[in-house]
Write a structure and sequence with these properties.
5-stranded mixed beta sheet, alpha/beta, globular, D-Maltodextrin-Binding Protein, domain 2, about 40% helix, 13 helices, 6-stranded mixed beta sheet, about 350 residues
């Protein structure tokens, strides 16, 4: 494997730099796949503005750049993509609303931010539903997942493809966590944990005895720095690329929720495109999503190890400890499974079981 894209790129809102040198210590990431396919005929020009939440070093950003490269190469430059990282244009919820009004073309939210549009997506927020990355990918590439993407029709949003946000892990500045009792505090107060504005996430942390605090991702670093919240939960790669280790002393590999990203396009932008461009955009979205999943897998364990090297105390749970967390959040299933759809959950569990055979 070689470092990705050693040529020089211009980051939106940043100076020009060599991407291979953008981070002093970076994992050896796979190069993007070769771009194949004929150039699509001329059906006009489009510049797509895409807002994302994560940093330039994240798999989300790198794969978004690859998405733009595919479109630009296969249209002789007639479709260009400008990526705005680091929540420059707003948080997930705000950018989704901008897509609906047509003031932004694309965004790449966590599925957890989209459950207000498609309730079935809350299945991904159920704790410990997807036990492995292989199972998660099998679900994201299934007909069940495609039905979820298709369900956005009529919302003002065009859902293009699932990719990986990843397994959410707990970090905090108060104490090591190896059990639900450590979250709840017992003799001390429960941890205040930033969550997304998502009712299932709130229910998970309430079941664990924490004080869940919904907050926009862009506000999180300063909130932890100022002690407004003790901690948060995100994939290791997000914790690292967001520099949360600068304000968080402890991390726990809970893997309590696997969250996808969804590449989204404004329905207004979609409808302005010729069918041939629509087909190309859909194809590029799927190709870049597959690449993002690959990058995330390469980045994940490396990110955890890097956080440890940079001073974060990492707790890795054994099966018994993990079982205690699973037992503590069982009431979340009992509350939410009937609301999300027990048949849907059963379908997902069947895919998970088949993926492990």
């Amino acid at each position: 494997m070689t470092a990705i894209w050693r040529n020089t790129l211009t980051f939106v809102g940043a100076t020009t730099l060599t991407l291979g040198m953008a981070h002093a210590q970076s994992p050896e990431l796979s190069d993007p796949p070769e771009i194949e396919g004929e150039v699509v005929a001329d059906y006009g020009s489009h510049t797509l503005r895409m807002g994302i939440g994560l940093a330039e070093s994240s798999p989300q950003y790198l794969s978004s750049q690859y998405f733009g490269e595919i479109l630009e190469q296969r249209t002789d430059g007639r479709i260009k993509v400008s990526v705005f990282p680091n929540s420059q244009l707003g948080d997930d919820v705000q950018m989704l609303e901008m897509l609906q009004t047509g003031t932004l073309d694309m965004t790449y939210p966590s599925s957890s931010a989209t459950t207000g549009y498609v309730e079935e997506l809350a299945a991904f927020d159920l704790p410990f539903l997807l036990p492995s990355r292989e199972a998660a990918v099998a679900v994201m590439q299934s007909d069940v997942a495609q039905d979820m993407l298709d369900a956005f029709e009529g919302t003002g949003l065009k859902a293009l493809a699932f990719s990986e946000n990843g397994y959410r892990q707990l970090s905090n500045s108060a104490r090591p966590v190896a059990s639900p009792d450590d979250v709840a505090g017992l003799d001390v107060r429960g941890l205040s944990v930033r969550t997304m504005e998502n009712p299932v996430h709130l229910a998970i942390w309430e079941a664990l005895g924490a004080n869940p605090t919904p907050m926009a991702f862009g506000e999180l670093f300063s909130a932890m720095e100022q002690g407004v919240v003790d901690g948060q939960e995100n994939p290791w790669s997000t914790i690292l690329t967001s520099n949360f280790n600068e304000v968080q002393d402890y991390g726990t590999e809970t893997r309590h929720v696997y969250t996808p990203f969804i590449m989204m396009l404004s329905e207004r932008t979609w409808e302005r495109m010729a069918p041939e461009y629509q087909e190309l955009v859909q194809e590029a979205a799927r190709q870049s999503a597959e690449y993002e999943i690959q990058l995330s897998a390469e980045y994940d364990d490396w990110s955890r190890d890097q956080l440890a090297e940079r001073g974060m105390e990492i707790t890795r749970l054994d099966d018994e400890q993990l079982g205690a967390f699973q037992e503590a959040v069982q009431p979340v299933y009992e509350e939410w499974a009937p609301r999300i759809g027990e048949d849907l959950i059963a379908d997902i569990q069947k895919i998970v079981e088949e993926s492990s055979n």
